[in-house]
User: What shape does this take?
Amino acid sequence: MAEQLQDLIEHALAQTPPGRVVWVALSGGLDSSLLLTLAAAACRRHPRSIHALHVHHGLQAAADDFEAHCRRLASRLGVPLFVERVTVDQAAGLGLEGAARQARYAAFARRVAPGETLWLAQHRDDQAETFLLAALRGSGVRGLAGMPPGREWRGRRLVRPLLACSRAELEAEAERLGLSWVDDPSNADEALDRNFLRRSVIPLLTQRWPHAAEALASSARHAAEADTLIEALAEGDLAALGGDPTHVPLVGLVALAPERQRSLVRHVCHRLGLAMPPSARLASLLAQLEARPDARVRVDWEDVEARIWRGCLYLRPKFAVMAADWRAEWNGMAPLPLPWGELHAALVPTDGRPVALTLMARQGGERLRLAGRGGRDLKRLLQEMSVPPWERERLLVAWYDGAPVAAFQPDSVRWLAVAEGWRASVVGE
Assistant: This one.
């Protein structure tokens, strides 16, 4: 088994971009402690930078002990350890496990840079549990596919090198190496669905069918293959409708068979990094595809909203509404904190002189003097540019010396209109 594990780690390492850090998510449990140990050894054999990342959830008294163990292990292995402390929002409606996962992945995004790889320690038994959970929730093929061995996520690569191994195999190797690890007391709480499956259901299944976990993980692989084919079909449908997932023409969408409509909407969500719609929400959305042109169609789920406007379906994250009285002073160059993030853009006079701008929510009635076009109503400009109504509600307007000089669209991260005598840009352009 030791050679097989080494081969898995060597293969995963060979697939990571050279010159980039390899991160290992380290909880302190058996699986992640073993993964970090094996990864550190591989990175010594093939000189590569490796970092460990521990997420401190703060959900129980033992959380500090988990961190202490991770620090000792990382120090012994000579691996830099980074600790991210998070707050789990238990009122988010995701359940404790879902909320903890959301907080954990937010920590991953903060610490792991785009282009880098994060290794996760899930194994075959975890995959079997995921398959059963998905089946019990009535999930489709994508849910039944469980956890992929590797995938792109927000510009980062998530890899599970141990996914083909059973927990028993990992435990035997950890004991052979003389490793120590911590056991999370919450793993004994069978009120949590995954713990109930792990402690009561799968052992019972294994008594009757000794290879139950392996068979369930195999079914997940078959579902993943089917999902790949479905994705290819949906991508072809999207390409035939223009190829832009941000707005899908209804005329082509309604011509598809219902199952292809559902597949295409899920594919668009996947392309845009949005949560998958529950079956009932998806059915509600598709039932309104042929609503009257003047109907205000909006269907929400989790942090996603779907809208229909001017013959197109729009899928996008929910954004916080800008308070009507929000305003901020800005020099036109420095990053500026906004209610939902940070503005990385520039707006300066063409003569380059320093200015003091006021950035505020759109109030209505603003007029900008544009080069070669004279004074124009911002409302009319937005209509001409076909900016959707819900995005007009979140526009920022920059004022100088009592007059509006530019309008910025946060949703698309772009300047929509810039007055004569001013120059605007977005960082990265």
Q: What stands out?
A: The mean pLDDT is 88. The chain is about 40% helix and 20% strand.
